[in-house]
Specification:
This protein has about 240 residues and is mostly helical. The chain is about 60% helix and about 0% strand. The protein has 12 helices and no strands. The mean pLDDT is about 85.
Length: about 240
């Protein structure tokens, strides 16, 4: 729904922060581009749909947007470790000691050490930065996570099943909607149906009025959490099982 953002009542700085938000881009100097204009931001908005990986090139225009961008990796890199430990992909002691000696081996320690380091090293500077030791360890941890969590056999073994489930759930929703954008919500409907129909039906919403029903359903699926998506698959798709 990025294409509709320029029509919303938000500041150009907020729009720029949304476009520049990409935690996969790890730098050790987040310096805002204060020369950016409103037209530059709108040009960025246009290019994200036409130029492959263009979002990786966008430089925020404010320190606030830089904080948001940096916060993304701080939030996920340790949390993913905890999740991977819970499901048995890795063990805590598997994380290299050269990394844990600097960042810690729990999500709480990693978040705290990264935040404290960036605050201390960015104080009274016109940009955000880590110390060299912390940044080097963060780079190593990110590479380690990719090798041992995101690309692990356990993490990727169900990709074909999940991909097929996305297509089948889309077809199921499309058949239930049957081309309608206005559906009366009834007490006899399941909670799943009420949620779907409520998302699709909104006469006062410009996005809903002007967007093809197929695109609306795609957006509905893309906004689902993992837990909700799996529950929907179990509800609607016969023999779906990745447990």
């Amino acid at each position: 729904m990025l294409k509709d953002l320029e029509n919303l009542n938000i500041t150009v700085q907020t729009l720029d922060g949304i476009l520049a938000h990409n935690g996969e881009i790890l730098l050790n100097k987040y310096e805002p581009d204060k020369s950016k204009t409103a037209q530059d931001v709108l040009d960025d908005l246009e290019k994200v749909f036409k130029v492959k990986n263009y979002s990786k090139q966008i430089r925020p225009m404010t320190l606030e947007a830089s904080v948001v961008r940096l916060s993304d990796i701080i939030a996920y890199i340790g949390r993913d470790i905890e999740d991977a430990i819970i499901v048995g992909v890795i063990k805590r002691e598997d994380i290299p000691k050269e990394i844990t000696d600097v960042l810690g081996d729990t999500n709480a320690q990693i978040v705290n050490n990264l935040i404290m380091d960036v605050i201390i090293n960015s104080l009274e500077k016109p940009y955000l930065t880590f110390s060299k030791d912390v940044f080097d360890s963060l780079i190593k941890l990110k590479k380690w996570n990719y090798a041992n969590i995101y690309n692990s056999e356990m993490a990727t073994k169900n990709l074909n099943i999940i991909e097929k489930a996305f297509y089948n759930l889309y077809d199921t929703y499309l058949n239930k909607i049957d081309g309608r954008k206005e559906i009366e919500i009834k007490d006899s409907m399941t909670q799943s149906e009420k949620t779907l129909y409520s998302f699709v039906s909104n006469k006062s919403n410009e996005y809903k009025q002007n967007t093809d029903i197929r695109r609306i359903i795609i957006d509905y699926i893309s906004g689902q959490t993992d837990k909700f998506f799996l529950k929907e698959c179990e509800t609607y798709l016969k023999d779906f099982n990745i447990r």
